[in-house]
Write a structure and sequence with these properties.
The longest helix is centred in the N-terminal third of the chain and has 19 residues. This protein has a single domain, classed as Nuclear Transport Factor 2, Chain: A, CATH 3.10.450.50. 27% of the residues lie in helices and 36% in strands. The model has no long low-confidence stretch (mean pLDDT 95). A hairpin with a 2-residue loop joins β5 and β6. A six-stranded mixed β-sheet has the order 2-1-6-5-4-3. The chain is α+β, with helices and mostly antiparallel strands.
């Protein structure tokens, strides 16, 4: 079944609004659970393939610990069938002397499953660029920071 584009966009807009509240530290990262199915598959560049809602909730909390101050503003959204593609910035805290941000483009590919939930999310970004930005900005991880697993499931 193909769902209406307006429904998919509305759910994604709510997901982004929730994520914005998380960026402002008004909600914990696992608050995103309401937007994913029980059997969700989430693929992250560093953390690998995470399957199932409970594991994804744990991933959100562990992978984002110590990244307080980072934000992820959206740059575009496109929908084709039940697939949504979103561009966003992986924005580190602070700005350069010229006022530009330390940021790297990321792309998310999500599959909408209906009932306000996505069954798949894959985040794609250039981790080398992110590491270069970390060095350039002088950013240091906050308390509880976790590095990705040495050999994640791919």
């Amino acid at each position: 079944m193909v769902f209406p584009e307006s429904e998919i966009r509305e759910v994604y807009d709510r997901l982004v609004a929730t994520r914005d509240r998380i960026d402002r530290q008004e909600l914990p990262w696992d608050a995103l659970e309401e937007f994913f199915t029980e059997d969700v598959v989430y693929i992250d560049q560093g953390w690998g393939r995470i399957e199932g809602l409970e594991n994804v909730k744990k991933f959100f909390v562990e992978s984002m610990a110590g990244l307080e101050g980072w934000s992820f503003p959206r740059t575009f959204t496109a929908v084709d069938g039940n697939q949504l593609i979103s561009g966003w910035q992986n924005r580190l805290p602070g700005q350069r002397a010229d006022g530009t941000y330390y940021e790297a483009l990321g792309i998310s590919v999500l599959i909408y499953a209906g009932n306000g939930r996505f069954s798949y999310d894959e985040d794609i970004l250039n981790m080398v660029h992110v590491y270069e930005l970390i060095q350039e900005s002088g950013w240091q991880p906050g308390p509880g920071f976790n590095i990705p697993p040495q050999s994640p499931k791919r």
